[in-house]
Amino acid sequence: MPWIVLLSLLSFVCILGIFWGEATGHRALVGGLIGVVLLAYSFILLFLRKGGFTGV
Amino acid sequence: MYKRLLGRLLSWTLRLDVAINRAYPTDFNPLYYTGGLSNLFLTVLVLSGIFLFFYYVPSLNDAYTSVEFITNDVPYGMIIRGIHRYSADAFMIAILLHFFRNWFTERFRFSRDEPWISGMMLLLFAGFIGVTGYALVWDQRSELLAAMTGNALGAVPLVGGWLRSMLFGGTGLTDLLLARMLYLHVGPATVLYILLWWHYVRIRHPKVWPPAVWTLFSLGFIFLFCGLLPATSQLAASPGTVPSRLAVDVFYLLPYVGLKYVAPVWLIALAVVIVVYGLYIPYQLPETPAEMGLRDSGIAQVVDANCTGCELCYFDCPYDAIVMVPSPHPGVTKAAQARKLFAIVLESRCVECGICIGACPFEALELPEMLAKDVEEQVLSACRS
Q1: Is B134:B253 a contact under the CB 8 Å cutoff?
Q2: Closest by alpha carbon to B214, among B31, B82, B43, B92?
């Protein structure tokens, strides 16, 4: 559960970073942050499953 | 010797499965989805490739400039180029994992030789498409690749000169080269989908897509790479001064490294031997009579009176050997009297595995040479002894 919260917070920070990167033209950073968000989501899904919050 | 090696590789593969299954839920094990992951990367490649296609100019003068324009001036062009670049490597990694896993677990037996052979073709085409992709950038690496390809083609006995001239559009470097390379990049990519159809046609329940966890993870990894290590070109090609060093992508350009040590004609011969051996793998270990006896049970037979048309056997047959047709008449048993459908076994596809027997709760299927009661007797006698 703490990992899920941490990853959710990380995703939120990255999404703020995506907006900032788009506004300031740092597009490589935006690409990287999208990657971090997707990776975080994948681990959130995994931990939800391992914690029994989602079924098969 | 080969059989013992294969047995050992199978054992290691299964141990790896068990180790991964301790860390992940079983249905999330990425090794079960190497085919699905290949499909995911292929889809990403096609979508990003369509984007790049609209900006790319296939001529010696403008190709490099157009790629630089995509990278530096098109919004998110650098990211999409990176996605195309890194997905190509991920595609090859997934295909190779799929290839070795299926080899080591002997998933080429029975009627699975067709998926194996089509898979070999897919691997070949994927490699070819990757190489032609590197040529399109028309930087110094592309120029060197073109020169090496030309030399290798020229070394093919009898038709070498003609092949070289067909690819280059003449005896020297012409403006037709990149147009042909573009066609050889996009055309075979279309053929991949035909080969995929062939790959799946005999498999009843193919895992064509990875679970969401691995889809997100794979896409995330690719995006992260694009941000950290943006795909870039080398210096622009300069006709007349072919560079001597090749920046190697090990997943696609390794054969070109071989050209440094081996004459082109020998490298081509080696490639042919490897491909022919790959196609021969399903037939390398003919089954012994004892092994044949284990599955020499006759084509599965539908017991007309008992079939209820429930479709369980149809869904469970991994070889797509059972079809459901409208029932010509009602069955005899109570459960079968109201049936709308009736199961038919396609003899050419049945491998006599008996999976349908286990799937049917109504005793409506039998293997004629291995009836359920015989199996029961064998099990009981084995238990008694």
Answers
A1: yes
A2: B31
Q: Which of B25, B220, B228 sits opposite A38 (nearest CB)?
A: B220
For chain A, what is the largest distance between any 2 Cα atoms, rounded to a whole number of angstroms?
42
Cα distances from B145 to residues B18, B58, B259, B326, B338, in angstroms, run 43, 16, 11, 59, 67
Q: Which of B20, B29, B51, B79 to mutate to test the interface with A (most CBs of A within 10 A)?
A: B79
pLDDT digits (tens, 9 = 90+) for B50-59: 999 999 999 9
Write the DSSP symbol of residue B60.
T
Would you tell me how many other CB atoms lie within 10 Å of the CB of residue B313? 24
Token couple for B377: 């007797």
Place of tokens 């079924």: A55
3-class secondary-structure state, position B305: coil
Give tens-digit pLDDT for B237-295.
887 776 767 778 888 888 888 888 888 888 888 989 999 999 999 888 776 656 655 55
Cβ atoms < 10 Å from Cβ of B255 = 16
Of B79, B216, B228, the CB nearest to A45: B216
Instruction: Tell me the one-letter amino acid at B88.
Output: A
In sequence order, what are the beta bridge partners of B236? B139
For chain A, give me the number of helices (H) and strands (E)? Answer: 2, 0
Q: Cβ B226–A28 below 8 Å, yes or no? A: yes
How far is residue B347 from each of residues B164, B192, B301, B302, B353, measured CA to CA in Å? Answer: 47, 29, 9, 12, 12
In angstroms, the CA B107 to CA B98 distance is: 11
Question: What is the ipTM, given to two decimal places?
Answer: 0.93
Instruction: Copy the structure tokens of residue B165.
Output: 């001239």
* Long-range contacts from B326-333, C-beta under 8 angstroms, 24+ separation: B331/B304, B331/B305, B331/B306, B331/B307, B332/B304, B332/B305, B332/B306, B333/B305, B333/B306, B333/B308, B333/B362
